[in-house]
Write a structure and sequence with these properties.
The chain is of the alpha/beta class. The chain has one domain: Rossmann fold, CATH 3.40.50. The protein is built from 3 helices and 9 strands. The protein has a 6-stranded mixed beta sheet, with helices on both faces. A 3-stranded antiparallel beta sheet has the order 1-9-8. Strand 2, helix 2 and strand 3 form a beta-alpha-beta unit. It is globular, with a radius of gyration of 16 Å. The structure holds guanosine-5'-monophosphate. The site of guanosine-5'-monophosphate has 18 residues, from strand 5, helix 3 and strand 8.
Length: 177
């Protein structure tokens, strides 16, 4: 198995914090008086969800979904399996899907169709990171923190083989041994 030997900071914790604050202000403005339900896509988006949630000035419920794409871990196949479904109905809720990163868009494309079939009052997508270069599915987030180049990133909740989620900065993997 390859072992990562070096990481380089792409986005510092301060840059991320400032951006999450901006996003929370936007979401708070847009969801005044609504029935906001944040749906966090496990596991990578957990850190983003928690930071965002604490900065919101509107009430919000939260729920979680876990999905996995069939095939190996670093390439999306587009075939998505639900590992954990929501605990509640989203009927009449203003759903905001909280993602860590959109890459090919295949995962979100599946999730969006799946959730739309459950009759939410509205459905939008917020992602901290976007890699538009690699997009395959027609997915455009309604709220996006940063567009980043086509590099594999870890930290701030994102993993490589379940490691590195704890890094407070967003880092690029540089070398393998
Ligand atoms: P998509 O279906 O858009 O190709 O894949 C989205 C999912 O792939 C993300 O939720 C994330 O789990 C994973 N992913 C895509 N790019 C990266 C990356 O650069 N780093 C990490 N850690 N995960 C990624």
């Amino acid at each position: 198995m390859r072992r990562i030997v070096k990481t380089e900071v792409l986005l510092s914790r301060q840059e991320i914090e400032a951006k999450v604050r901006e996003l929370a202000e936007e979401v708070s403005r847009d969801y005044q008086g609504k029935n906001l339900l944040l749906i966090c896509v496990l596991k990578g988006a957990v850190v983003f969800l928690c930071d965002l949630l604490r900065l919101l000035e509107v009430g919000a419920e939260i729920d979680f979904m876990a999905v996995s794409s069939y095939g190996n871990s670093s390439k999306s196949s587009g075939v998505v399996r639900i590992l954990k479904d929501l605990d509640q109905s989203i009927d009449n809720k203003d759903v905001l899907i909280v993602e860590d990163i959109i890459d090919t868009g295949l995962t979100l494309s599946y999730l969006r169709e799946n959730l739309l079939s459950r009759n939410p009052a509205s459905l939008r997508i917020i992602t901290l990171l976007d890699k538009p270069e690699r997009r395959i599915a027609q997915i455009k987030p309604d709220y996006c923190g940063f567009s980043i180049p086509d590099k594999f990133v870890v930290g701030y909740g994102l993993d490589y083989q379940e490691k590195y989620r704890n890094l407070p900065d967003l880092c690029v993997l540089l070398e393998f041994a």
